Structures are given as structure tokens and as C-alpha cells.
């Protein structure tokens, strides 16, 4: 009898496996984290309900229940990109005095460079933008672009670009350059002959980026 009671006590005290999590919020977050991890590691090619469920340690029916399936999950990832911008690109000046539009864009460009370097999923999304023309990729791309545009609107206040400069076109080219440099460095530790391996290498790239921004905006 004592042995039986001890066994029951052990079972009652044993941790509940992840796949049996009953807290909906925790389960939803586990599913979302697994989906992002899967996309970052393997891309859309192996992105499926079964794979996400395995990664989250839950029954696949919970993905349908909480997200409505893969499309809903992609929408949730897109919404999460707004949080990515807030986390990686904070709404503060970082000690800089933003006296001009050039100050603003210099800060955003440097923050975006560092954020992209640190996030494999975002690098995947950027790579998909130029290699895949699917509805899923379009949704994620638009979510990121919208979040970045929102940052500029919140931070710029009364700051405006110099007269005669098409800021939308210039900023698009600046961000495209940042994305290309980071993706190239991820693949081969260099871009157009510029070695990008060490912190000093990236400091050189950051200095060049600042000069480009200042060359346009002053």
C-alpha cells in the first residue's frame, strides 16, 4: 500500500509534458515560437501543420483551434513583426539629438543593420522577398514595411527631408543596400569585396552607411 501511495505521489508531482499544456496563452506562444523557429531554419518549403505541432510539442488540432490553420499562423507571425520592430528598433534617440531628418535616418539605418544581423528569421523573410512571389511572403514583407514606416512617423515629429529629395525612393535604396550587405555577409562573410567577419569590419560598414545617409540628407 505504501509503495502504491508513493507511486501516486510521484506521478502527481511529475511535471506536465509540454504537449499537454492547458494554459491557452502559453500554448499559443509555444506554437508561434515554433512556427518562427521552423521558418528561420527551413523556410516555407517544410512549413506545415505537422512540423509546427512537433516543434511546439502540442496536438496539431490546437493550431487549427487557435490560429485557424497555416494562413492564420502566418498572419500571426506578420503581426509579431510589429513587435520585432518595437523590440529591436526602440522609440528613443539612443542619446542622439535628432535635429534633422538626416539624424533620424542615420539612427534608423544603423538600428536596422544591427537588428537584421541579429535575427535569422528576418533575414529569411528578406531573402524570400527577392526569390519568392507568394501570398505568404507578401504578407510578412508588408507587415515589416508597415512597422518600419510607423517608426519613422512616430519619431520624426516635425522633421522633414531636404527640399527636392524623394525621401521614399532614397530610403528604399538605403534599406535595400543594408539588406543586400547583411545577406551577402551571412552567406560568405563579405559583400562586393568588403570583408565582413569581425566587429571592426562591421564598424567600417556602419561608418560607410552613415556617410551615405549624410551625403543625401546632410
UniProtKB/TrEMBL annotation:
<dbReference type="InterPro" id="IPR050109">
    <property type="entry name" value="HTH-type_TetR-like_transc_reg"/>
</dbReference>
<dbReference type="InterPro" id="IPR036271">
    <property type="entry name" value="Tet_transcr_reg_TetR-rel_C_sf"/>
</dbReference>
<dbReference type="InterPro" id="IPR001647">
    <property type="entry name" value="HTH_TetR"/>
</dbReference>
<dbReference type="InterPro" id="IPR009057">
    <property type="entry name" value="Homeodomain-like_sf"/>
</dbReference>
<feature type="DNA-binding region" description="H-T-H motif">
    <location>
        <begin position="48"/>
        <end position="67"/>
    </location>
</feature>
<dbReference type="Pfam" id="PF00440">
    <property type="entry name" value="TetR_N"/>
</dbReference>
<keyword id="KW-0238">DNA-binding</keyword>
<feature type="domain" description="HTH tetR-type">
    <location>
        <begin position="25"/>
        <end position="85"/>
    </location>
</feature>
<dbReference type="GO" id="GO:0003700">
    <property type="term" value="F:DNA-binding transcription factor activity"/>
</dbReference>
<protein>
    <submittedName>
        <fullName>Transcriptional regulator, TetR family</fullName>
    </submittedName>
</protein>
<dbReference type="GO" id="GO:0000976">
    <property type="term" value="F:transcription cis-regulatory region binding"/>
</dbReference>
<keyword id="KW-0805">Transcription regulation</keyword>
<keyword id="KW-0804">Transcription</keyword>
Amino acid at each position: 500500500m505504501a509503495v502504491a501511495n508513493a507511486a501516486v505521489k510521484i506521478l502527481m508531482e511529475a511535471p506536465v509534458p509540454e504537449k499537454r499544456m492547458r494554459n491557452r496563452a502559453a500554448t499559443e506562444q509555444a506554437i508561434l515560437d515554433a512556427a518562427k523557429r521552423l521558418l528561420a531554419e527551413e523556410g516555407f518549403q517544410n512549413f506545415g501543420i505537422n512540423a509546427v505541432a512537433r516543434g511546439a510539442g502540442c496536438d496539431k488540432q490546437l493550431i487549427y483551434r487557435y490560429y485557424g490553420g497555416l494562413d492564420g499562423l502566418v498572419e500571426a507571425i506578420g503581426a509579431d513583426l510589429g513587435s520585432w520592430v518595437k523590440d529591436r528598433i526602440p522609440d528613443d534617440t539612443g542619446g542622439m539629438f535628432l535635429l534633422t531628418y538626416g539624424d533620424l535616418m542615420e539612427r534608423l539605418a544603423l538600428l536596422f543593420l544591427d537588428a537584421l544581423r541579429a535575427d535569422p528569421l528576418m533575414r529569411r523573410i528578406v531573402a524570400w522577398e527577392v526569390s519568392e512571389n507568394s501570398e505568404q511572403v507578401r504578407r510578412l514583407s508588408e507587415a515589416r514595411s508597415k512597422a518600419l514606416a510607423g517608426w519613422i512617423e512616430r519619431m520624426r515629429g516635425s522633421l522633414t527631408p531636404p527640399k527636392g529629395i524623394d525621401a521614399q525612393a532614397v530610403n528604399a535604396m538605403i534599406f535595400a543596400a543594408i539588406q543586400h550587405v547583411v545577406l551577402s555577409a551571412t552567406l560568405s562573410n563579405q559583400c562586393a569585396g568588403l570583408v565582413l567577419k569581425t566587429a571592426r569590419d562591421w564598424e567600417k560598414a556602419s561608418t560607410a552607411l552613415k556617410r551615405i545617409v549624410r551625403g543625401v540628407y546632410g
